[in-house]
Amino acid sequence: MRLLLGNFKGPEGKQGPEGKKGNTGDTGQRGSRCTSGTSVTGTNTTGTKFASTGITDALIHDYYMNTDTGNLYECTVPGPADVAEWTYICNIKGPIGATGPAGSISDINNQKPTYTESTSLANIESGETVKTAFGKLKKALSLLITHYTQKATASVLGHVKLSNSAAVTQTGQMALDAIEKNASVAGTLANQIQQTNSKLTDKVTCTVSTSYITPRLLSIVPYGKILRTSIDATVTDNTTGWHTIMSGLPKVRENQHYQVLLINTNGDIGIRDGLFTNTVLNVYLESFDIGSRIIVNAMTHIV
After folding, report:
1. Distance between CA atoms of 272 and 71, rounded to whole angstroms?
2. Structure confidence at residue 59 (pLDDT)
3. Is this structure's pTM higher than 0.85?
């Protein structure tokens, strides 16, 4: 049998003075860390090594998020990049949102777009960026400027004027349209030459008086009873009067007058009288016509 005689625990005393600070403990392990990049890939739910992460101190429960796919991975085996293993957990990338309204430029005059010239010639497309469109335009303008300032040759693409005029006298300035060389196309220069050649009949022999003119071009073509005479020559005589510049022609039916085009050394144009009589061709010249160019293109009836 036991009897409680009393409690000898006294009242709580006052708080004593603060004790001395103990030594600093060892540094603990860092907490979980999340790294982002594109090195960890796939959806493998078992640990997989990815040496290209460059992470040297991966710990269990560290995380890695692929910024391209939105996949999230957890480290299940710690260590440097060639040892650590990562396991696919889930994908945190949400669905694609609705397309927002098109933006606008309030003051395009003050915009300063940056762009790089396109490597190839291509048309601009609706919906592409200003940078891409301006790069294509820069390429097109560059080629256009080069084409315009560079003269074309047989081997160099460049700028050249087209002409089908027989009056062009400067070389390297104009080009004959290529179609003019195609005799199968009606109306082209080659076609007209072919038509003329096909109508030639008899060859005409005559005498040109070189005492009065020096011929550049001489063409005498009979078409049945019609004689076509074409002369381009320089006047070499300085006497005024009628001059027989050609003889031995087929006999004309009757005397026939014609006009002679004269271009003097100053480039002035004038008219002189001409006359077919019997078998000769005459032209009236002035003393100051010497050195001038005369052009005859006449059709006469022959016997």
Report:
1. 98
2. 95
3. no
Instruction: Tell which residue, 225, 252, 248, 239, has the closest CA to residue 290.
Output: 239
Residues comprising the chain, all counted: 303
Backbone phi, psi, residue 219, to 5°: -140, 120
If asked whether residues 155 and 165 sit together in one domain, one would say: no
Across-strand partners of 91?
71
Domain count, the chain: 4
Rounded percentage of the chain residues whose pLDDT exceeds 90: 45
Looking at 158-291, which runs of residues are DSSP E strands? 161-162, 174-175, 207-208, 213-223, 226-235, 241-247, 256-263, 269-277, 280-285
**Number of CB atoms found within 10 A of residue 195's CB:** 12
What is the per-residue pLDDT across 205-241, written as a single tens digit (0 to 9) for each? 788 888 899 998 888 888 878 888 999 999 999 999 9
The tokens of 287 are what?
């003393």
Name the residue range of residue 40's domain.
34-91
